[in-house]
Specification:
seven-stranded parallel sheet; 7 strands; alpha/beta; globular; binds NADP nicotinamide-adenine-dinucleotide phosphate; 254 residues
């Protein structure tokens, strides 16, 4: 249950090792969040993250094995995260970028990326929503991306999965109005994390701390959509309305 000031006291992250999610958790812990569950493919590799969160003030940081691709396990794994106590906030942070050039020649790898980034969000998002509806409150943060707002040929498989996950999260949020459960979409541009290591930064590039600040501020003000940085909202509005031939040229030069 959030405290009297509305601050998150317990958080669950699906994709627990995500740099953006870890930065967000550090902010939340500094504001009073005490219980954290990290759901990750390789929970044994999160010792440093656990130490950092405990050092920042979390009293309980636990892990659970979670694979976005293993949709059959999602309901059980997620229910177990709600078994001991309420979860105020769930961040759906897992994601895979992939390399478009390799995916072009590997339909099976592209399908697996789509299963993680979209099907995994659908399955885990519904499981979290079910558990939060039952407890009567909670916020689900879904990590979307500007890549889904107008898909570029340079990463269209990833972009299409983000577009689909974003649409799903919007619908999920609408379906939960009145239930006590809120969904907040986060649409960052390029963020310097493990996911983008070694890549040429795009315009408006930012870092996990800036995304974390935007998430925490968005939670405090009950936002439905957060753009990081905010200017990307207007940039993407312009991009979305560009004729396709113009967009092909513009997106190729970014
Ligand atoms: N970085 C950016 O520029 C950017 C921009 C916009 C949106 N986003 C989105 O923000 C979210 C967080 O990304 P990030 O930048 O923080 O990248 P990150 O540090 O690479 O985090 C991604 C996380 O997803 C996990 N993951 C991948 N496949 C998984 C699976 N099948 N099951 C469970 N976990 C899985 C990874 O776990 P492993 O350690 O096991 O691989 C990793 O912890 C993603 O959804 C991403 O698409 C990122």
């Amino acid at each position: 249950m959030k405290n009297a000031l509305g601050a998150v006291q317990s958080a669950l992250v699906l994709g627990g090792g995500s740099d953006i999610a870890q930065a967000t958790l550090r902010r939340l812990v500094s504001q009073g969040c005490r219980t954290v569950v990290l759901a990750a493919r390789r929970p044994d590799e999160l010792a440093d993250e656990i130490d950092a969160l405990k050092h920042a003030g979390a009293t309980s940081v636990t892990t659970v094995a979670f694979d976005a691709l293993d949709t059959a396990s999602h309901a059980t794994v997620i229910d177990s995260c709600f078994a001991g106590s309420d979860v105020d906030l769930a961040i759906i942070a897992f994601g895979v970028l992939g390399e478009q050039a390799s995916l072009d020649d590997d339909p099976e790898a592209a399908a697996e990326l789509a299963r993680a980034n979209y099907v995994g969000v659908v399955s885990s998002g519904l499981a979290v929503a079910h558990a939060m509806r039952k407890q009567g409150h909670g916020t689900i943060v879904v990590m979307s991306s500007v890549a889904g707002e107008r898909v570029r040929k340079a990463n269209f498989v990833y972009g299409s999965t983000k577009a689909a996950a974003d649409a799903f999260a919007q619908g999920l949020g609408d379906s939960l109005v009145g239930s006590g459960v809120h969904v907040m979409l986060v649409r960052p541009g390029f963020v310097h994390t493990k996911m983008t290591a070694g890549m040429e930064p795009a315009p408006f590039a930012t870092d996990p701390d800036a995304v974390a600040d935007a998430i925490v501020n968005g939670l405090a003000s009950g936002k439905e959509v957060v753009w990081v940085p905010p200017a990307l909202r207007w940039v993407m509005t312009a991009f979305r309305h560009m004729p396709r031939p113009v967009w092909r040229r513009v997106s190729a030069s970014r």
